[in-house]
Amino acid sequence: MTSPQATPDERSKRTIHTAGCIIIGDEVLGGKTVDTNSAYLAKLCFQLGMNLKRIEVIGDDESEIIEGFGLKLKLHQDAFERMKRISKPHPSQPNFSWDKPSPALSAKLRMVELPIDETRDEKTQVLFVDERLWVPISVVNGNIHILPGVPKLFQQLLDGLKPLLIPRLTDPEGKGIYRVLFSTPMAESEVAGYLTELAAKVEPNGVKVGSYPRWGKGKNTVTLVGRDKSYMESLVPEVEKGVDGTRVEVEGEDDKSGDEDLEAQ
Fold first, then answer.
1. To 5 degrees, how large is the angle CA 257–CA 258–CA 259?
2. Contact 256/241 with Cβ under 8 angstroms?
3. Exposed, middle or buried: residue 123 (CB in 10 Å: 0-12, 13-18, 19+)?
């Protein structure tokens, strides 16, 4: 017997363990626009202790996306009123009127046409998380959060959403995930054996080991990533010895003039 599928309201209250990110935009796929939003989200997930499992970029096929939600777009009156109160007409539209039909007004109205499930409370589907903005976060199915692609708006809204996410984390205090960095003069091939043994040792404790070459520099970086801070701290002397390196707070902080030449020697 299979358990009944969770309702959107149940999903909106569940403990959050993982996250995924879909970036929508033909400009990103075509190389015209560089996506910075997924990186900002990834940093937030790391800070809060959410495992960001996947990032996808898809084309801007509006009809296909709307069909995937299975919901009709509806003009959200509250969002529209906030837009009229907070937003200002573009300098190139001096004759713009909220009461007179125009291409500019049609474009603005599209921004507040949101996928709404008529059987649910709209307040759980449209979140105004920043009083300085008229732009809401649209929530579909209880667990899909739709944000605008403009980086400044995306970041402000994501920051505003944070207080609503923290109580639903596996660690409600939001201590997140820890990263410990080591700088080593050894090449990846030199430390590979030791790091393989170390990874097998620490994996049962939920710690991951990484090695990252820094091209053009004389030192590479080794990382430990996990939730158990005290355990990771206990590993520091061992790892420093194993990679013949030192712990650093920021990658490259111990670079010295002339290090670039070390790699070629």
1. 95
2. no
3. exposed
73-86 per-position pLDDT tens digit: 999 999 999 999 99
Strands, E assignment, the chain: 18-24, 51-58, 73-75, 113-115, 126-127, 137-140, 144-146, 178-184, 208-212, 220-226, 246-248
pLDDT in tens, 106-161: 988 988 999 999 999 999 999 999 999 999 999 999 999 999 999 999 999 999 99
Report which DSSP code applies to 128: -
DSSP 34-94: ---HHHHHHHHHHHHT-EEEEEEEE---HHHHHHHHT--EEE-HHHHHHHHHH----TT-T
Q: Sign of dihedral through CA atoms 243, 244, 249, 252?
A: negative
Residues 6+ apart with CB under 8 A from 262: 185, 218, 219
The strand pair at 18-24 and 51-58 is best described as parallel
How far are the Cα atoms of 43, 47, 54, 136 from residue 36, in angstroms, in the given order? 11, 17, 15, 20
